[in-house]
Design goal:
- The complex is a heterodimer of chains A (about 450) and B (about 425).
- Chain A is α/β, with parallel strands linked by helices and about 450 residues long.
- Chain A folds into three domains: about 30-125, Alpha-helical ferredoxin (Fumarate Reductase Iron-sulfur Protein, Chain B, domain 2, Orthogonal Bundle), CATH 1.10.1060.10; about 145-240 and about 380-440, 3-Layer(bba) Sandwich (FAD/NAD(P)-binding domain), CATH 3.50.50; about 240-375, FAD/NAD(P)-binding domain.
- Chain A has helices at about 15-20, 30-40, 50-55, 60-70, 70-80, 85-90, 100, 105-110, 115-125, 150-160, 180, 195-200, 220-225, 255-265, 285-295, 315-325, 420-440; strands spanning about 10, 145, 165-170, 205-210, 230-235, 240, 255, 275, 275-280, 300-305, 330, 335-340, 345-355, 360-370, 375, 380, 390, 395, 410.
- In chain A, the strands form six sheets. Chain A has a five-stranded parallel sheet with strand order 4-3-2-5-19, sandwiched between helices. In chain A, strands 7-15-9-10-11 form a five-stranded parallel sheet. Chain A has a three-stranded antiparallel sheet with strand order 12-13-14, with no helix packed on it.
- The longest helix of chain A has 19 residues, at about 420-440.
- In chain B, β3 (about 15-20), α1 (about 30-35) and β4 (about 40-45) form a beta-alpha-beta unit.
- In chain B, α5 (about 155-170) packs parallel to α6.
- The N and C termini of chain B lie far apart (about 50 Å).
- Chain B contains twelve helices and 20 strands.
- Chain B has helices at about 30-35, 85-100, 115-125, 150-155, 155-170, 185-195, 240-250, 270-275, 285-290, 295-310, 350-360, 385-390, and strands at about 5-10, 10-15, 15-20, 40-45, 60-65, 70-75, 105-110, 130-135, 175, 200, 205-210, 210-215, 220, 230-235, 260, 280-285, 340, 365, 375, 395-400.
- The interface of A and B includes residues 37, 41, 44 and 45 of A.
């Protein structure tokens, strides 16, 4: 067996039991007592700021009051009415930047109501009952194609199915879930939650899933538009940005999203290799997820290298602290200029940067870090716009999700507007479904 | 540290904090530890007549209501008087009093409404060396069904009669404990006074059902599927007790009667409030049943510190200080005008004041797009609801308007002169000012 100091990229740096511990639930679920205590702290604010801060506008004070009065099932229904993926959002939402940041008790005491964990308590309670809480309206005879079984696609499909439309979801992967299944740190979605959530969601009926079908490869927008009454595109961002640093092709250089996906799908964590010296280039949640998980797999030294200042980092302060608490080194104002090594990466050369007011500039001073595994986490790009009008690098959509082509809607990360968050994708999918429903029944 | 020594009816105790007659004072083991913890006095759990003791239920005796975080706000009990043999209690009382001569030891008694019953027990109590007796005319459950406790306390003539017997057959102070389960507390207090009582203590517990079990449809606490009303106490009853105490303290017939205040005393502040309304001391029960004997330390340090801060050197100086300010509604100054004021620095923007004012009161709070809440003086009637629902203490205050200012709600100039309903033009029975 290897250990954290084993040179190069190696599997089984830590014993299986340690790995199991490391990848256990980041936030253990609240038990009934903990939930009641946490719920008691909610002030039931008027026009509550937490609701405004939630992209899906969940009625948070109401669901917390329902928990505190001993009706977690009703609380879950309040959540799911707005956000059918409320279970996953309870796990992965950056609540510290959303509802909990807006909580008045954050202003009052620096300690917000634990909205995320309470949401998980409620949704877990209802989902454990194994029955789907919604039923379908009478069939409309209308059909809708949803491309992409990630949060946006699933939310859209569920809402459409609820209104009585027949939905077919196509997904390029072998199983549904999108980033919920492949793109989130393992300790945020344990026990195969993403897959269980999809199964539960599909329990409403009226949704058919076809996997292994990618837009542009197996599917064309024209064909879909011809075969279905409406199309919703939620294909995400399949491409990965390049570093534009010399030596990017060396062995040991990898996309962070691939590493994260592999880790999520691994049945045996001891079989998953990781470097002794890991450097992650980037400053978002993907960078943090890759860095922390490298550390948890047993990498000895892990560094996040971000080209701008800490304030500009898109990973929340909470995520930064999470990384730091796991022993990840955070470097700011450094950008990769060269990757050195003979075949395999051995060193990354970083140049210090400064914001001159006229943009970010290299200072000329460089530093070399030892590295045998380098993860690129500098953002993803849209793979195909399917001939639709773009807004910047994403599919242009209206507030209701309408694209430039009649009968085609889009949402989630592939579409313009909103942050690239699970909860935002859910909101966009849901809202597009409402608009599609309105269009189909007009 | 202000001296908390209290002289109540000639009974001295190192502080005004006594334990009420209740489960914590049922036996020597407890009372010794209570005195060791610092309690100034104890009213021993109520004794009954010689003979087989009463029996208690063998299921739950207590039920509770809670505030946030399951903080106990109200407690209900269906326990009866002591269920231990009379002589056992008397022996223990005698031993404890001998070992703690500086503490007040009062014996609570409840025997049938017959002169002989009282004549029998009083000499035996006298023999213990206890400092006085308290007549339990308050217990609202169980014993009242047998013509004792609240059944006596609800009939002023009985109170007077039994009190007289006690004064006749017992030399030391007699305190009459009153039930709040009546319409006018002044009547039983006056009856006790006529009977020669040295003091009244109040309130005993209030008839209550704390909750209903929605699965079994039984009131709680439930004994094999059935429930009976119990006696309610704890922080929730304090306002009721304070009002009753004040009524006795300012009623012409009972004014000056010594009062031992009981009902939800949980902190030093509660005690100070009772004392300010005319109580010579307070009795505590639920707080001890919830937190244990140790809380008396906070009560002692808190009351003493507050007295230092205010310059009071004895508890006596505080007794009744608030009484002159308790009046009837008709005498409240209608020329006093206040407006709510929200301190924006303290505001956490929860909007509870807005919801309360908008849905209940006078739509006198404005809410801006950025959640700044401000009072609309032209609508504000100073009802205080916003203050009451605000989670941040002193964030919203009631600011008095100064004479000469114009109240934007009424358009009238605020008058300096006091004027009340008795002379108000809208009052058909108004008496013209002479």
């Amino acid at each position: 067996m290897s250990n954290p100091m084993t040179p190069g990229i190696a599997a089984a740096r830590l014993p299986a039991e340690t790995l199991a511990q490391n990848f256990a639930d980041l936030h253990a679920p609240l038990d009934r007592h903990e939930a009641r205590v946490a719920a008691d702290r909610c002030y039931f604010c008027y026009d509550a700021p937490c609701v405004t801060a939630c992209p899906t506008s969940i009625d948070i004070p109401l669901f917390i009051r329902q928990i505190s009065t001993g009706t977690p099932d009703a609380a879950a229904k309040t959540i799911f009415d707005q956000n059918i993926l409320g279970g996953m959002c309870a796990r992965v939402c950056p609540t510290e930047d959303l509802c909990e940041q807006a909580c008045v008790r954050e202003a009052a005491e620096g300690k917000p109501v634990e909205i995320g964990r309470l949401q998980r308590y409620a949704t877990d309670t209802l989902m454990a009952k194994q029955s789907h809480p919604y039923s379908r309206a009478a069939p409309t005879g209308k059909t809708v194609a949803v491309v992409g079984a990630g949060p946006a696609g699933l939310a859209c499909a569920h809402r459409l199915a609820m209104y009585g439309h027949d939905v077919t979801i196509f997904d390029a992967q072998t199983k549904p879930g999108g980033l919920n299944e492949f793109g989130i740190a393992a300790y945020k979605s344990t026990d195969d939650f993403a897959a269980r959530e999809v199964d539960w969601l599909m329990g409403i009926g009226g949704i058919t899933l076809q996997t292994g079908k990618a837009l542009g490869r197996d599917l064309s927008l024209d064909a879909l538009a011809g075969d279905f009454d409406a199309v919703f595109l939620a294909v995400g961002l399949g491409g990965v940005n390049a570093l534009q640093a010399a030596g990017e092709d060396k062995d040991g250089v990898r996309n962070a999203v691939d590493f994260i996906a592999e880790l999520r799908q691994a049945s045996d964590l001891t079989s998953l290799p990781v470097g002794r010296d890991v450097v992650v280039i980037g400053g978002g949640m993907t960078a943090v997820d890759a860095a922390v998980q490298s550390k948890l797999l047993g990498a000895q030294n892990v560094t996040i290298a971000y080209r701008r200042s800490r304030d500009a980092m898109s990973a929340s302060r909470y995520e930064q602290d999470l990384a730091a608490s796991h022993g990840v080194r955070l470097m700011f104002n450094v950008q990769p200029v060269a990757i050195h090594g003979n075949g395999s990466v051995r060193e990354v050369e970083l140049e210090y940067t400064a914001d001159t007011g006229a943009g970010l500039q290299g200072t000329g001073e460089t530093i070399r870090l030892r590295v045998d595994q380098l993860f690129k986490a500098i953002g993803q790009t849209l793979e195909t716009g399917a001939g639709l009008a773009l807004d910047g690098r994403k599919i242009a959509v209206t507030a209701a999700g309408r694209t430039s082509r009649a009968g085609v809607w889009a949402g989630g990360d592939c579409a313009s507007g909103g942050d690239d968050l699970t909860v935002t994708a859910v909101a966009e999918g849901r809202d597009a479904a409402m608009d599609i429903h309105a269009a189909l029944t007009a | 540290m202000a001296d908390l020594t209290t002289n109540f009816l000639g009974i001295k105790s190192p502080n005004p904090f006594w334990l009420a007659s209740a489960p914590p004072t049922d036996k020597e083991y407890n009372v010794r530890r209570a005195f060791d913890a610092g309690w100034g006095g104890v009213v021993w759990k109520t004794l009954g007549s010689e003979g087989p003791p009463v029996v208690n239920v063998n299921g739950p005796r207590y039920g509770a209501i809670y505030g946030a975080d399951r903080r106990l706000l109200g407690l209900n009990n269906i326990e009866l008087i002591t269920d231990r043999p009379l002589q056992t209690n008397l022996d223990e009382i005698k031993r404890v009093k001998a070992d703690y001569p500086d503490r007040a030891m009062i014996v609570s008694i409840m025997v049938p409404c017959e002169e002989q019953a009282w004549k029998d027990i009083l000499p035996r109590v006298q023999e213990t060396g206890a400092d006085g007796i308290e007549l339990n005319f308050g217990c609202p459950h169980g014993m009242s069904e047998r013509g004792m406790g609240a059944a006596v306390g609800q009939v002023p003539e009985y109170i007077e009669m039994v009190t007289r017997w006690c004064k006749q057959y017992y030399d030391k102070p007699v305190i009459v404990k009153l039930t709040p389960n009546i319409t006018d507390i002044r009547q039983p207090a006056a009856a006790a006074m006529r009977g020669g009582a040295d003091a009244v203590s109040l309130i005993n517990t209030i008839n209550s059902i704390t909750s209903v079990n929605l699965d079994t449809m039984s009131p709680e606490p439930s004994i094999d599927g059935k429930g009976s009303h119990g006696g309610y106490c704890g922080p929730a009853v304090k306002p009721i007790a304070l009002s009753m105490v004040s009524e006795i303290a300012r009623h012409p017939e009972t004014r000056g009667l010594a009062i031992s205040g009981i009902g939800g005393v949980t902190t030093w502040r509660d005690a100070a409030e009772y004392i300010s309304l005319g109580c010579g001391n307070v009795q505590v029960c639920t707080a001890v049943m919830t937190y244990g004997f140790k809380i008396v330390q906070e009560m002692i340090s808190g009351l003493s510190g507050w007295m230092d801060e205010k310059g009071y050197t004895s508890v006596e100086q505080v007794v009744g200080r608030a009484i002159p300010n308790v009046t009837d509604w008709k005498y409240l100054n209608l020329n006093y005008v206040a407006k709510a004021k929200i301190n924006q620095d303290d505001c956490i923007k929860c909007g509870r004041c807005y919801a309360a004012c908008e849905d209940t009161s006078h739509q006198a709070i404005a809410m801006s797009a950025d959640r700044t809440f401000t009072v609309i003086d032209a609508e504000c009637v100073a009802c205080n609801l916003c203050v009451d629902v605000c989670p941040v203490e002193n964030c919203i205050t009631m600011e008095a308007m100064q004479p000469g200012q114009v109240d934007p709600r009424t358009g009238k100039v605020v008058q300096k002169e006091y004027a009340n309903w008795t002379t108000h033009p809208n009052n058909p029975g108004a008496v013209a000012a002479e």
